[in-house]
Design goal:
4 strands; globular
Length: about 170
């Protein structure tokens, strides 16, 4: 594992050295992609969190509530394999199918320092403000192309969003 992770740690150290302590450095990890082993990804995350080389670790989980796919790790949600790690001063963020205020609250309650939203912010550019005003706010799909245009998406991006099944209505 040390050799496989060496490039990541060397790049992070070089960026930190070059940019200095006032420049935010973060790393995104997708723990279940590309044939990675969860135990090894957890070790890398633990080292990154305590390295002082990164300000935050961003976990791309595909779904913050999912169980791990790998046998031997299925006794608790995937996110929990990382929220229990010692972090020092490094923050831990999670992303993955967060589309409601309730999901944000649950992820924070389970130990995340912050939650990142993708599709929810495409659907509502002001998603964080809506959740802050109403903790039960949730996004709904599909939406019309006109709704996405009103949210600031270009016509090209609206067309791209049609590739995501159930995201955009057929109506133009």
């Amino acid at each position: 594992m040390e050799n496989r992770a060496r490039l990541l740690f060397e790049v992070v150290r070089a960026v930190r050295e070059r940019c200095g302590p006032d420049f935010q450095v973060g790393v995104r990890i997708s723990p279940e992609r590309f044939g990675l082993r969860l135990g090894e990804v957890r070790e890398v995350a633990a080292e990154l969190l305590l390295s002082d080389a990164v300000d935050y670790l961003d976990l791309s989980l595909w779904d913050v509530a999912k169980q791990p796919e790998e046998e031997g790790f299925q006794d608790r949600p995937l996110m929990d394999w990382f929220t229990d790690l010692d972090r020092g001063t490094t923050r831990l963020g999670v992303a993955g199918k967060v589309r409601s205020g309730q999901q944000v609250t649950e992820a924070l309650d389970r130990g995340a320092d912050f939650v990142m939203v993708g599709r929810a912010s495409i659907l509502h550019h002001d998603f964080p403000e809506r959740v802050r005003a109403d903790g039960s706010f949730a996004t709904r799909t599909p939406v019309s192309p006109a709704h996405l245009a009103d949210e600031g998406l270009s016509p090209v991006f609206v067309e791209y969003m049609r590739n995501w099944r159930g995201f955009v209505t057929e109506a133009s």
